[in-house]
Amino acid sequence: MILAAQYYRPPFPERRYWKEDLDGMKDAGLNALQLWVLWSWVEPEPGRFVFDDYDDIVDKACDAWNFFEQDPRRIASITTRTWATVNN
Predict the structure, then answer these.
(1) DSSP annotation of 16
(2) Count: domains in the chain
(3) Range of the domain at 23
């Protein structure tokens, strides 16, 4: 079962809270994270793209949920589910 949270709609919550929040979500049993991408935040002026905060929060989420690396059977079991297949 996927248990997720919608998190980070720039500019809140502030970066200083991310690690603690993500660790708390994982400890609470959540196993997924959904992020909003606000294009005006990513492209503050035409042709200039800034993904620094998104890169950082994805890194922190990977650190919090590194249990996938420790239990590859979990990923394999997800891919055997009907809803996770292509062209079924």
Answers:
(1) G
(2) 1
(3) 4-84
